[in-house]
């Protein structure tokens, strides 16, 4: 089963209000590019619906969190402890109650800025443009602004331009991520720990990164499209038309 799921309940909720107390932004920790990528991939997996595939991936995440900065490691390990202690049916019910039924806990980043208005359609297009500018096509059923998808994109960004696009995409939606963190903390929900781990690895979006990000996104996709095919919960991006045996090399 793939990583991404369609949630019509969330998609058609009104724009969230500002009733949850806003938390102060977390000061970023010192992390290497590899640590940032590992954190974002781990969060991408852990923020997905807790089915059997996600729970299996969580066991793999447990094996790599030791290489992360202490503040990130502590939060992810605490969440993994909570996940492992829960019954599958209860975990699934909690996930639905948290992310599908509470509009301030939406996993769709453009939702925080635009709600379900005409502006949101343009925001979704911008996500697709960002992915394509890095040479990727979305291979899944979720909307392109789905936070786990954006985090996986960031985790797979290895070239300078890919990193700038990923940083610009997450940085331009940092306010939405912070609203989500505040809402989860107010519940309280253990998922706040995962979002906190992400926030700890998101530096402020500097002017040069923002400029280059917008330049790359608006210039269109590169001539050569490269990527990975969908292989379960780890790979929702794939170049259009590429056969599995080619892109797995």
Automatic annotation (TrEMBL):
<dbReference type="InterPro" id="IPR036411">
    <property type="entry name" value="TorD-like_sf"/>
</dbReference>
<dbReference type="InterPro" id="IPR003765">
    <property type="entry name" value="NO3_reductase_chaperone_NarJ"/>
</dbReference>
<dbReference type="Pfam" id="PF02613">
    <property type="entry name" value="Nitrate_red_del"/>
</dbReference>
<dbReference type="InterPro" id="IPR020945">
    <property type="entry name" value="DMSO/NO3_reduct_chaperone"/>
</dbReference>
<dbReference type="GO" id="GO:0051082">
    <property type="term" value="F:unfolded protein binding"/>
</dbReference>
<dbReference type="GO" id="GO:0042128">
    <property type="term" value="P:nitrate assimilation"/>
</dbReference>
<dbReference type="GO" id="GO:0051131">
    <property type="term" value="P:chaperone-mediated protein complex assembly"/>
</dbReference>
<dbReference type="GO" id="GO:0016530">
    <property type="term" value="F:metallochaperone activity"/>
</dbReference>
<keyword id="KW-0534">Nitrate assimilation</keyword>
<feature type="compositionally biased region" description="Polar residues">
    <location>
        <begin position="1"/>
        <end position="12"/>
    </location>
</feature>
<protein>
    <submittedName>
        <fullName>Nitrate reductase molybdenum cofactor assembly chaperone</fullName>
    </submittedName>
</protein>
<feature type="region of interest" description="Disordered">
    <location>
        <begin position="1"/>
        <end position="24"/>
    </location>
</feature>
């Amino acid at each position: 089963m793939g990583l991404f799921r369609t949630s019509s309940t969330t998609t058609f909720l009104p724009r969230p209000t500002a009733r949850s107390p806003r938390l102060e932004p977390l000061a970023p920790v010192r992390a290497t590019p590899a640590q940032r990528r590992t954190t974002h991939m781990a969060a991408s997996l852990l923020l997905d619906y807790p089915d059997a595939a996600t729970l299996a991936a969580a066991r793999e995440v447990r094996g790599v969190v030791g290489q992360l900065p202490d503040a990130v490691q502590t939060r992810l390990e605490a969440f993994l402890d909570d996940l492992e202690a829960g019954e599958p049916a209860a975990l699934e019910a909690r996930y639905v109650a948290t992310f599908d039924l509470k509009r301030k806990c939406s996993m769709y980043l453009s939702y925080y800025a635009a709600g379900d208005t005409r502006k949101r359609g343009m925001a979704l297009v911008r996500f697709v443009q960002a992915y394509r500018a890095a040479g990727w096509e979305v291979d899944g059923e979720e909307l392109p602004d789905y936070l786990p998808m954006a985090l996986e994109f960031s985790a797979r960004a290895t070239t300078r331009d890919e990193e700038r696009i990923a940083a610009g995409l997450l940085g331009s939606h940092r306010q939405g991520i912070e609203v989500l963190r505040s809402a989860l903390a107010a519940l309280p929900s253990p998922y706040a720990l995962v979002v906190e781990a992400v926030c700890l690895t998101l530096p402020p979006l500097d002017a040069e990164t923002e400029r280059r990000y917008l330049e790359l996104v608006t210039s269109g996709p590169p001539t050569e499209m490269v990527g990975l095919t969908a292989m379960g919960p780890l790979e929702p991006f794939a170049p259009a038309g590429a056969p599995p045996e080619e892109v797995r090399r």
